[in-house]
Amino acid sequence: MLGLAGLLSCNAEQAAEDLSKKTTLQEPKPTSPPFPANVFSRMFPESPPFVPSTDEAREQAKKLGVKGGLLDALDGQPNGNNPDNPNMTEGVTFIGQFLDHDLTLALKAPLLEQTQPGQTTNFRTVKFDLDSVYGGGPDGSPELYDTSSGDIKFRVEAIPGSEQVSKKRAGRFDLPRDQKNNAILGDSRNDENVVISQFHLAMLKFHNAVVDRLRADSGQANRSTRDIFEETRRQVQWHYQWIILNEYLPLTIGQNRVDEILQNGPRFYRLQDSQFRNSNGDLLIPVEFAVGAYRSAIRKFVPLIS
User: Fold this and answer.
1) Model's pTM, two decimal places?
2) 44: in domain
């Protein structure tokens, strides 16, 4: 499961870190996958490696990412060749990061150790259902939720004094945090930087706004708190999936490719193939996508994150 993109973005000490120990996730770390045998798969299991797995090959791979190396676009230099992307902004990269965190979470998969995909647990569901936001739900992750209004909303925190520095004196908000400033959320990776942190916050506030909208609807007045929560989660997921299908994918892979897949289905990731399902018939994500193609691609949408 050695990802070239991972090698190029960290040193050996960082690559060997165990996320299960590093995470600041305030809810208990997942101890079981969302369904049994939720592991990774391979898209091309019969394909030989590009080069033999030797120390020399690993050293050569590391050199690709060094300053002045093959992957250095020489930004800001006269001989640089890294034109801007006219179709998207820097924020698309962080949306891609958020999407990745909604699909995969391998708590222990050191890059510099040989790891078998079929023995590596994925603690995320293989679908865009925002389990990285909702966690285990109100019952499994009660620390994420605020029930003081009588409905099930997410906790968010107002930033003290923000009205004094905001346009029209609008208040600003942050993720809920503990006394050590660790974010209390469904996936600690969504507090890695300000942009993805605020995107996660936007999803929390969107959920809360949908709860208010449903509760204000006279047709919903007699529904239970739990029913309102489930309907809210369903609507939030639908909006999220609509954005992926109608905005994110056309921007990143092109509308023609999206239309082709919708009409003809995936070319290589064929849902009926047994290699992409476990013994229970649940879908699995191939490492060629999760560790290689997708993680590498989201870093190339724009030339430079300023």
Assistant:
1) 0.81
2) yes
Please report how many Cα atoms fall inside a 13 Å half-sphere around the Cα of residue 145, on the Cβ side: 20
Query: DSSP per residue over 185-224, as a string?
Result: SS-GGGGSSHHHHHHHHHHHHHHHHHHHHHHHSGGGTTS-
- Chain centroid offset of residue 15 CA: 19
pLDDT higher than 60, residue 20: no
Main-chain dihedrals φ then ψ at residue 190, nearest 5 degrees: -80, 15
In a domain, 286, yes or no: yes
Q: How far apart are CA 291 and CA 301, in angstroms?
A: 17
Phi, psi of 261 (to 5 degrees): -65, -40
Distance from C-alpha of 183 to C-alpha of 174, rounded to nearest angstrom: 9
Domain with 75 in it: 4-297
Q: Say if 305 falls within a structural domain.
A: no
Strands 40-41 and 285-286 turn out to be parallel
Give the mean pLDDT of the chain: 82
Amino acid at 35: F
Confidence band for 48, pLDDT divided at 50, 70 and 90? confident
Find, among 107, 200, 210, the residue nearest to 153 by Cα: 210
Ranked by mean pLDDT, which of 47-51, 73-77, 141-145, 295-299 comes out on top?
Answer: 141-145
pLDDT at 253: 87
In a domain, 304, yes or no: no
Q: What is the DSSP string of 14-82?
A: HHT--HHHH---SSPPP-S-SSTT-BEE-SSTTPPPSS---HHHHHHHHHTTSTTSTT---TTSTT---
Domain tally for the chain?
A: 1
Residue pair 296/7 in contact (Cβ under 8 Å)? The answer is no
